[in-house]
Design brief:
Blueprint lengths: L3 E6 L4 E8 L3 E9 L1 H5 L6 H22 L9 E7 L3 H18 L3 E5 H7 L4 E2 L12 E6 L4 E8 L2 E7 L5 H11 L6 H9 L23 H17 L4 H26 L4 E5 L6 H8 L6 E2 L3 H4 L4 H12 L20
Parallel strand pairs: 1-4, 3-6, 4-5, 7-10, 10-11
Antiparallel strand pairs: 1-2, 2-3, 7-8, 8-9
Bound molecules: 5'-O-[(R)-(carboxyoxy)(hydroxy)phosphoryl]adenosine and zinc ion (ZN).
Length: 339
């Protein structure tokens, strides 16, 4: 029997909906980005984000169902991002999902956004043949704007947390360093673009290895870039491309090396890299450049926030028996270790 999940994602600054079949085949996906609006402020303004979700959510859901040539009656469950994320933004998606549940009688499934990022590796376009499923145990590196962590995924929905960031998330570090260099929001793509013309070895920025631990720390690196920027500004020129390339190389070096080391230590069959920062070309090249482990990195449209990944995680939750009640609340802070 075919199972179709309609999913809604509004945890930050993308209003998104998607329909997924049998946990993998993507029938339709819509992402309305607020990026341009937030770029004017240099970051996401929570209240502006919530109000924009209110405006976009219904058209985004309608568009998604139309693209899938389906009606609400054709879906088996409604999945929605419950957290982590901005409270006011999450509430818009949650209430929209509850409205659909009330209108259709279909079950509600609350999904953790971080689990969603990991499940982006299972999604493929419905018109393409299904690639092989990721094989457990999987060493999963999650690098997004709000989180950076390493988890061993031993089975569906089973995570063993090996480490996480002690300060900034990788994406947050990209965003903050971009601001220091006068590059536009969001910082990740701006740094990547600037780094294209830079020499990654011209600045030797520090790598925080933190001994044998699988934790990350990016604040020392961020401070080192800031110190260099202040010094160079006094001297009159800012070699933005070299600074961006040096910073990017330091982040890639640490996340890549720790992930490979953990994959070896825990006997992983595959590596999975997910979250907004996995869109970074230098990170993708580092992982694709080794052949010790097969690597799953979602295609670019599935790296940054989307609802296809929420549908994929929601599918697993649903087939494992999760059905939430209509008094389900959002969870703005919700580590993967607590689901
Ligand atoms: O997963 P995501 O869309 O949202 C969160 O769940 O946080 O991740 C957003 C983060 C931002 O910090 C953004 O700068 C970063 O992902 N990002 C990138 C790239 N594209 C997005 N970082 C580095 N290189 C990129 N190409
Ligand atoms: Zn995300």
């Amino acid at each position: 029997m075919t199972i179709r999940i309609l999913a809604i994602e509004t945890s930050c600054d993308e209003t998104a909906a998607a329909v997924l079949e049998d946990g993998r085949a993507l029938l339709a996906s819509t992402v309305a980005s607020q990026m341009e609006m937030h770029a004017r402020f240099g970051g996401v303004y929570p209240e502006v984000a919530s109000r924009q979700h209110v405006l976009s959510i219904t058209p985004v859901i309608e568009q998604t169902l139309a693209d899938a040539h389906l009606t609400l009656g054709d879906v088996d469950a409604i999945a929605v991002t419950r957290g982590p994320g901005l409270a006011g933004s999450l509430v818009v998606g949650m209430n929209a999902a509850k409205g659909l549940v009330l209108g259709s009688g279909r079950p509600l499934v609350g999904v953790n956004h971080l689990e969603g990022h990991l499940y982006s590796a299972w999604v493929h376009d419905a018109k393409d043949e299904a690639p092989p499923e990721p094989q457990f145990p999987i060493m999963a590196l999650l690098v997004s704007g709000g989180h950076s962590e390493l988890n061993l995924m031993t089975d569906h929905l089973q995570y063993q947390r090996l480490g996480g960031t002690l300060d900034d998330a990788a994406g947050e570090a990209f965003d903050k360093v971009a601001r220091m260099l006068g590059l536009p929001y969001p910082g990740g793509p701006s740094i990547q673009k600037a780094a294209l013309n830079g020499d990654p070895t011209s600045f030797k920025f520090p790598r925080s290895w933190l001994g044998k631990s699988y934790d990350f720390s990016f604040s020392g690196l961020k401070t080192a870039v800031l110190r260099e920027v202040r010094k160079l500004e006094k001297e009159g020129t800012l070699p933005v491309a070299n600074l961006a390339a040096g910073f990017q190389a330091a982040v890639v070096d640490v996340v890549f090396t720790k992930t490979i080391k953990a994959a070896r230590e825990y006997g992983a069959k595959e590596i999975l890299v997910a979250g907004g920062v996995s869109a970074n070309t230098a990170i993708r090249e580092a992982f694709m450049g080794q052949d010790e482990f097969p690597v799953n990195i979602p295609k670019l449209s599935l790296c940054t926030d989307n609802a296809a990944m929420i549908a994929a995680a929601g599918h697993q939750r649903f087939v494992h028996g999760q059905i939430d009640s209509l008094d389900l609340d959002v969870r703005p802070t919700w580590p993967l270790s607590q689901i």
